[in-house]
Amino acid sequence: MRIGYGWDSHEFKSGVPLKIGGVELAHAKGLAGHSDGDVLLHAITDALLGAVAAGDIGSYFPPTDPKWKGADSVIFLEEALKQVRLAGYKVGNVDSTLILAEPKIVPQAKKIQARVAELLGVKANQVGIKAKTPEGMGTDNAAIAHVAVLLEGAGKVGSAPNKSSRAKKQKTLKRRGRE
Ligand code: MG
């Protein structure tokens, strides 16, 4: 079992679509960024990478690389999921808190939850989407996301046996030897 944590923030900007958790939300402003500025997917990506100690989003997709200009953040998330699989884990659950003044997230939370679950290959009840307004923080022109993830062993065939299964195998071999 592994735990991961991710955080991200993006500034609101006119003239770009607002994408949060892979869902386009109707709003006068979107989030500025080198990619599509999806603050939630970026924080989930970092949380997944952190859980398997595989670096961070910037080490795979440097903002200095023109290749990632306007990129769909789903690409970043898919790379993190690949790293999770390579390390022998799968997503147990994800919890998140969005902090933004506008728009209201609650009416859209179910849609975001369903899309994030779909992207992660888990059920909706394994994805927590919470939102708060930035009271007293002075960050009304930004969207912030905090994310925690729990990974479980994928139990892949061919993976190294754990101590107890090794012990069981030895017992079976001993027993067979006596028969
Ligand atoms: Mg970001």
What distance separates the N and C termini? 38 Å
Whole-number tally of structural domains:
1
**Major sheet description:** 5 strands, mixed
**Which consecutive residue ranges, at least 5 long each, have pLDDT under 50?**
none
CATH homologous superfamily label? 2-C-methyl-D-erythritol 2,4-cyclodiphosphate synthase
**CATH T-level fold name:** 60s Ribosomal Protein L30, Chain: A
The computed structural class is alpha+beta
Would you identify the CATH architecture? 2-Layer Sandwich
Structure, described:
With 179 residues, the chain is α+β, with helices and mostly antiparallel strands. It has one domain: 2-Layer Sandwich (60s Ribosomal Protein L30, Chain: A). The protein is 32% helix and 28% strand. It has five helices and seven strands. The strands form two sheets. A five-stranded mixed sheet has the order 4-1-7-5-6. Helix 4 links the parallel strand 5 and strand 6. The two termini are 38 Å apart. Magnesium ion binds at residues 8, 10, 33, 42.
Layout of SSEs?
Layout: E1 2-14, E2 18-20, E3 23-25, E4 29-31, H1 39-51, H2 57-60, H3 74-86, E5 89-99, H4 109-120, E6 127-132, E7 142-153, H5 163-178
Parallel strand pairs: 5-6
Antiparallel strand pairs: 1-4, 1-7, 2-3, 5-7
Helix pairs in contact: 1-3
The chain binds magnesium ion.
Concise account of the structure shown:
The protein has 179 residues and is α+β, with helices and mostly antiparallel strands. The protein is built from five helices and seven strands. Strands 4-1-7-5-6 form a five-stranded mixed beta sheet.
